[in-house]
Amino acid sequence: MKIFAFINQKGGVGKTTIAINLARALSLRDYKILLIDFDPQANAGSGLGIKVGKEESIYQAIIEGYCEKFIKNPFPNLYLLPSSIDLVGLEVELVEYPNREYVLKNLIKNSFYQDKPLKDFFDFIFIDSPPSLSLITVNILTACEGIIIPLQCEYYALEGLSLLVKTIRGIKKSLNPDLMLFGLVLTMYDKRNKLSHEVAEEAKEHFKWIIFNTLIPRSVRVSEAPSFGKPVIDYSPNNKASEAFLKLADEFLERIKSRKKYP
Ligand SMILES: Nc1ncnc2c1ncn2[C@@H]1O[C@H](COP(=O)(O)OP(=O)(O)OP(=O)(O)O)[C@@H](O)[C@H]1O
Ligand SMILES: [Mg+2]
Fold this sequence. Notes:
Helix content is about 40%, strand content about 15%. By secondary structure, the chain is of the alpha/beta class. The mean pLDDT is about 95.
């Protein structure tokens, strides 16, 4: 299992932050990671200090059908296929595409990096997604193998989750039989806040079988890091959240090994 997507149709729940920092933590463990930003907000790019226009973004890569020349390498072992706001237009244009649900999957399948298929060059491909259940999200669900759902430790965290799970089941049945819900990550956890604790407990109860033990704490350093174009792991390495992301990476790797699908 190599291709993971970070999905939750709720906005601002920590998808991009987890994608960036889990990717960075794995890159520090010597894994090669490609982070694909498939969100017009292009937050994964700005969080890694990269801003590109339409011509240099995944939008153009989709049009050309190949992505090698668009891939950036902002940190050792960590690569990015950046997005731009123009991706908004793709949602409309996709309707006209012949295999409109498979556009991202085909891009990954047909692209090479340094003469190797993407799946051979990279140990993991991560896809960051927008806060919607749109055709873009369908493309992501069709292209990936494992889904990681971030949950913010706030009221309403679990609301909307059943729709998401239903959507995942539908795609698994129709477009992507390999799709699997790989894990749920609880984030922005504040141990002084009773509600945060209650949400975490409730989520653990409902999703015992799939939830990651590592809780990502709320920390102001996490929200500052993107303005420096760095993952918090680099911006503030001794921060509790940075430590949590490194622990999450270990748990992620253990889970993959225990499922015996990797390497
Ligand atoms: N552990 C944390 N502690 C404090 N702030 C955090 C934490 N994780 C994320 N944030 C902040 O919360 C906001 C939302 O996070 P993020 O952008 O990762 O969510 P998202 O789900 O990707 O949002 P969107 O749905 O808009 O793509 C950002 O400002 C981010 O810096
Ligand atoms: Mg995001």
